[in-house]
Amino acid sequence: MSTAAFWDRAAPKYATDPISDQAGYEKTLGRIRHYLQPDHHVVEIGCGTGSTALSLAPGVKTYRGTDISAGMITIAREKLDTRTPQSLQFDVAAAADLPEGPIDAILALNLLHLLPDMTQVLHTCFDALPSGGLLITKTGLLKEGAWYLGLIIPVMRAIGKAPYVCRMSETEAFAAFTDAGFELVETIKQPGIAPRLFTVHRKP
Question: Whose CA is closest to 181, among 115, 144, 141, 133?
Fold first, then answer.
């Protein structure tokens, strides 16, 4: 099963599932707002059903949310209404296929550990940003999570119940950012069955 097909099938349930760590989500959302400015052009890759985009879009000049899943984007577009900023747009696209136009900040939230081509995506993000541009991410560190994840995930993936997942450590994540050319600005590590690493990086 392709990645897009998996998330298309998962989209209806994903849209109704509660956030597993609401306090952690609100904390990182607040940190993102701290960095985004009213004149920023923002792209969120792997935007899912658009909840974060809808929350952040009113505070920036333009906001483009993209996702490889047409099912996710369909649900995101259904959330648009007369109160939504007209500068918010949702499109079907792979993470490495960034939209044209100026980009001041790229968000990749709960996404990088799901990308087989994470290294390529990070380099693409670096190339698309201007000097001073921001890459803001939140990434699952499955290599530092519960021991049984390494056993369960491959089995679930084999039967179509889980997508591709990279078992990554904090050290490996930071090495990937550095290799792409980014400089670290801020990081928060949140606990869980698999810890989540929130980072803000800047292009020099």
Answer: 133
Contacts of 157 (CB under 8 A, 6+ apart): 163, 164, 165
pTM: 0.94
Question: What is the rounded distance in angstroms from the CA atom of residue 56 to the CA atom of residue 64?
Answer: 11
Asked if 30 and 59 touch (Cβ cutoff 8 Å), the reply is no
Give residue-wise pLDDT tens across range 99-146: 988 999 999 999 999 999 999 999 999 999 999 999 999 999 999 977
Provide the CB-side half-sphere exposure for 43 (13 A, CA).
26
Instruction: Give which of 143, 139, 141 is closest to 198, Cα–Cα.
Output: 139
The residue whose two tokens read 């984007």 is 73
Give the angle 128-95-187 at the CA atoms, nearest 5°. Answer: 75
User: What ranges in the chain are assigned the alpha helix state H?
Assistant: 3-16, 22-35, 51-56, 70-78, 118-128, 149-158, 170-180
- Of 167, 198, 172, 169, give the one whose Cα is nearest residue 184: 198
Task: Classify residue 94 as left (phi > 0), alpha (psi -120 to 50) or beta.
Answer: beta
Look over the chain and give the mean of its residue pLDDT values, rounded to a whole number: 92
Quick one: pLDDT at residue 170? 96
User: Is it the case that residue 1 has pLDDT exceeding 70?
Assistant: no
Structural contact between residues 127 and 66, judged by C-beta atoms closer than 8 angstroms = no
